[in-house]
Amino acid sequence: MISTVSLIASMRDVPIEWIFEYYLNLNEKLTGQNIKLCSIFSSKDKVPSMFIYYDVTSGTYKFKDFSSGYQGDHIELVKLIFNYNDRNKAVYRIMTDYSEFITNNAPREELSIQVHDKFKVTDYEIRHWNTVDAKYWQNYFIGSPLLEQYNVYPLKFFEMSRNELDGSTTVYNFAKELTYGYFRNDGTLYKIYTPTNSNKKFIKVQNYIQGIEQLTLQTKYLIITSSLKDLLAFNKLGINNIEGIAPDSENSMVPESIMIPLAQNYQKVIVLFDNDQPGIDAAMRYKVKYGYDYVLLPMSKDISDSVKDYGIEKVRETLFPLLKQVI
Fold first, then answer.
1. Coil, strand or helix: which one is 243?
2. Would you kindly state where each structural domain of the chain is located, as residue ranges?
3. Which one of 3, 147, 230, 243 is separated from 21 by 20 to 30 angstroms, measured CA to CA?
4. Nearest of 55, 171, 159, 162 to residue 119 by alpha carbon
5. What angle (nearest 5°) sits at the alpha carbon of residue 65, between those of residues 179 and 52?
6. Which CATH number applies to 209-327?
7. Tell me: the pLDDT tens digits for 215-258?
8. What's the pTM?
9. Which CATH number fits the domain 4-104, given the four candidates 1.10.1060, 3.90.580, 3.30.750, 1.20.59?
10. pLDDT single digits (tens) 276-308
């Protein structure tokens, strides 16, 4: 019996693009474009949250799965798919499967990689607050003074564009109610929030730890929430001696270079994420990585929805004892 592994001398003989195409059952060839799909690591993922992208720095494809928090290269992908405990097993699996593939099929055709430009926010205009904004944010007991303290402003429009491979430029202009820009203290836009857009509520412009510029470093405790809206809702509870931050999302962990020196200013750091499984999994990653305790609010999915559904007093009465247990 001929061993199919012998057909492949090393991983260099296996096209990286084939690995992603084969194990993710992609219906298109990877030629430099980015692909978004539902997470293969979470059966509950209804909105695509897994990205296959061409990393210009390394010159190869990688993946990031926001549902599970997994990310990495082609070998890491296979290692996670088959739950292997080391990368060598993943390498052997890839070489075996590709050997079998080319035994029964022609080797993957080498296609030239053409890096596709990504859509970027290229223009926007801030407008004044109106009654529609007030009605939306007051559902969460959040007013414009608190929003402006955290540099959140309504947008009249924003524009996104990208350069196409043929040299042309594609431009889209978005002008809808309930569109908000999130800004740094220096006025730099880092995120756009469109709560009525069920497909893509957030457009990330830059990496940023939300709330970090508003910290006083004078409280005993620091809380990490899953979103800026949750952080603002928490602030409305009036719980003294706790201030907070929010990463880009539950699955974008605050990096050690920021988290470790920041935590030294507080007696305790607590995580308060959504009470669904992705939120619990994300909180557990902070527990494993940093040792931070987490709290699950047994009300609505997150703290802002809990404030909306139950009111400030009821949420405070429920959350305060839970915080005391971990403090």
1. strand
2. 4-104, 119-208, 209-327
3. 3
4. 162
5. 90
6. 3.40.1360.10
7. 999 999 999 999 999 999 999 999 989 999 999 877 788 999 99
8. 0.75
9. 3.90.580
10. 988 898 999 999 999 999 999 999 999 999 999
